[in-house]
Amino acid sequence: MHPYAVAKMVTSFGYLHGRRLYLNMVAGGFKNDLTALNDTTPHDQRYERLIEYTTIIRRLLANPAGVSYDGRFYMVDKLKLSPSLPQELFPGVFVSGSSVAGLAAAKAMGATAIKYPKPAKECRSEPPDESVDSGIRVGIISREREEEAWEVAHARDEGLGFCLA
Asked: What is the pLDDT of residue 159?
């Protein structure tokens, strides 16, 4: 959807519910989905496109009186947004930060980089990147008996220690 539609929904939800939203910005998706959508944009360029997309959304939310933007992927001219969004409801932004391009995009957007955690034994010597806020993507394993859930978890991961590299 166009960045304007996202900004419009953010202001509408903010106005209706008086709550801050968090936007999970997605640069692409699964290969089969991209193929079905005829999106042949290479991985790193999808993150460049996402930076522009998010920039327009944020500028509209910060300056509803009018935004112009001329980028490689998007262009808007004197685009106005109403209703305006109170500053305290300005959305947080999440983006996948597991790849180099994703981490760079998170930094460029001031977003929280969400990463897939690695087993601790694979990254003990890698310090966390303190130049960007980060979080991890996790799953929940649920079984009728606790022991069954732990068996599944251990089988999937060969250990439960994780780190953010």
From this structure: 44
Structure tokens at 31: 């290969």
Please report the pLDDT score of residue 157 as a whole number. 63
Whether residue 20 contacts residue 92, with contact meaning beta carbons closer than 8 Å, is answered with yes
In sequence order, the 6+-apart residues with CB closer than 8 A to the CB of 92 are 20, 21, 22, 23, 111, 112
Whether the CB-CB separation of 89 and 95 falls below 8 Å is answered with: no
- Sorted by where each starts, the structural domains of the chain and their CATH numbers stand as 1-114 (3.20.20.30), 116-165 (no CATH)
- DSSP track, 39-85: ----HHHHHHHHHHHHHHHHHHHH-TT-EEEE-SS-EEEEE--SS--
Whether 56 contacts 76, CB under 8 Å? yes
Q: How far apart are CA 60 and CA 69, in angstroms?
A: 10
Q: Give helix 43-62 / helix 3-17 axis angle, nearest 10°.
A: 50
Indicate the SS3 state at residue 88.
helix
In this prediction the pTM is 0.80
Taking only the tens place, the pLDDT of each residue in 46-83 is 999 999 999 999 999 999 789 999 999 999 999 999 88
| Token pair 């590299």 in the structure block, residue | 165
Angle ∠(12,3,133) on CA atoms, nearest 5: 90
